[in-house]
Amino acid sequence: MADMAKEKSANGMAVGVSVGLAVGAVFGVLVGVMTGDIAVWLAVGIGCGMAAGAGIGTAMDKGKTR
Prior knowledge:
The protein has helices at 2-35, 38-65. By secondary structure, the chain is an all-alpha fold. The mean pLDDT is 85. The two termini are 17 Å apart.
């Protein structure tokens, strides 16, 4: 039973990171096109999006267990 909870926790984190990656990539491309430097803003957007997605995924997982 503990293994199943562990898998669901990892799944929630993966969903959070993947959604953050997608949102960050879109944000990075949009800002990069406006400023003329896509490479920098794409990297910043992806990094920030993944970090935020991991944090949100972890917070959601902790909220489910309580």
